[in-house]
Specification:
This protein is an all-beta fold. Strands 2, 4, 5, 6, 9, 10 and 11 form a seven-stranded mixed sheet that branches. A four-stranded antiparallel sheet has the order 1-3-8-7, with no helix packed on it. The chain is globular, with a radius of gyration of 13 Å.
Length: about 120
């Protein structure tokens, strides 16, 4: 069982930056691929980024590549998402999730946080 708690959301102007963090419980954190997803009102939940258990491999949606960076600290059981050059279309609730396999489908993730709101004003 893994419990996930996100933090770091907020309101930012276009072009600004935010850093999201996700704290995980449990002693098997490094065995999980960690992902970030987002969901805007009326839209399906979409993949943003993922990172392998060791942190050696990262994966990004095309829409955030070059602007967002995912990282993890296995000693602290945390995963982060640094978001730069934010755009109004990045506005959504952002979720941290855990899975045993590398995946960009939310259906393949087993554990989810409660989400944190990110709002980018134009």
């Amino acid at each position: 069982q893994v419990q996930l708690v996100e933090s770091g959301g907020g309101l930012v102007q276009a072009g600004g930056s935010l850093r999201l963090s996700c704290a995980a419980s449990g002693r098997t954190f490094r065995s999980y691929v960690m992902g970030w997803f987002r969901q805007a009102p009326g839209m399906e939940r979409e993949f943003v980024a993922a990172i392998s258990g060791s942190g050696g491999s990262t994966y990004y949606a095309d829409s955030v590549k070059g602007r967002f960076t995912i990282s993890r600290d296995n000693a602290k059981n945390t995963v982060s998402l640094q978001m730069n050059s934010l755009k109004p279309e990045d506005t959504a609730v952002y979720y941290c999730a855990a899975t045993r396999v590398v995946a960009d489908s939310p259906r393949l993730y087993d554990y989810w946080g409660q989400g944190t709101q990110v709002t980018v004003s134009s």
